[in-house]
Sequence to fold (359 residues):
Amino acid sequence: MRPSKAIVDLDALRHNLALAARHAPDSRNIAVIKANAYGHGMIEAARALENDADALSVATMDEAVVLREAGIEGPLLVLQGHHGPDDIGEAAARDLWLMLHERGQADTLLRHSGPPVRTWLKIDTGMHRLGIPPGEAGAVIDSLLASAAVAGLPVLCTHLACADETENPATARQVEIFHSTVKGRSLPTSIANSAGIMHWPATHADWNRPGIMLYGSDPTNACPGHPELKAVMTLQSEVMAVRDIAAGEGVGYGARWVAEKPARIATVSIGYGDGYPRHAPNGTPVLVNGKRAPLAGTVSMDMITVDITGREDVRVGDPVELWGPNLPVNEIAACAGTIGYELLAGMTARLPRVFRPGA
Ligand SMILES: Cc1ncc(COP(=O)(O)O)c(C=O)c1O
Fold:
């Protein structure tokens, strides 16, 4: 069998959640496991976190239904809320919490006549992607509080646009707008994502919403990142071929790497068909036998090539780490002009996930 796989360390996942709790001891944590738990495996992540997290959240109703079908029974928030009246019935039947982000969406819920649904209400404090404008929030909150379609108290929340930039004043502005919008309401609140939890104490509220930090990737994209975060995923493979090439010979599609002197190339069975970024340039680090070696040549769908010139130790079958505890995913992301989130969430279905400790 192909030796390429993503090893997913569920103890590290729980460790990172505990770190979120230590940063904000007065807040409850709703663990964000959307997009297949940022590529790690949504059902397994849910099972690993359901006892430690106060609630779980996903982006879509479809994701929430998958979790319910898998037997995940605890509090579960759908960050995009419902997409129509049918979703509301489904949410009520499956005991899902809906985040409302738009007036028309809230109105659809208010017309719902079945069993009531728990809600969160997103307020747009400056990200301008989703959320009720602050000037309209009061009326929507009043209508939710008065409605028989709404169970319990709505949680008032907002999402931060720039919290990963620890000097950016936009976060303080968002917090100020949020507080002035919810002032005088004795309702639960939620502001912080991972960067908020780790870097902006003023964003800590009744509920925090850690996502990327759970997976051990520093939310500021720093390398190596916060020393207490533990990488959850190790993307690993093995050397599948070793060859010597002459000076002047090119390697891979388009011959984008050319040997300046006689060179030795290791081929590794991982590619963009697995989620390894095609835009990773020559020189992107790869750990071969625990030592860094530079990527050499274009990333193919199923393989990469690595310059191991001068490395007498490397043999077919030797271990390769593409990212993980010894090579931060954020470093590879920086090489490829993207962020760790995209690389993790982009891991494809072809790549086997191996969970440790196993079930
Ligand atoms: C509404 C909301 N809250 C929380 C998160 C978690 O963010 P992060 O992964 O940066 O912690 C996300 C992620 O996109 C989100 O959309």
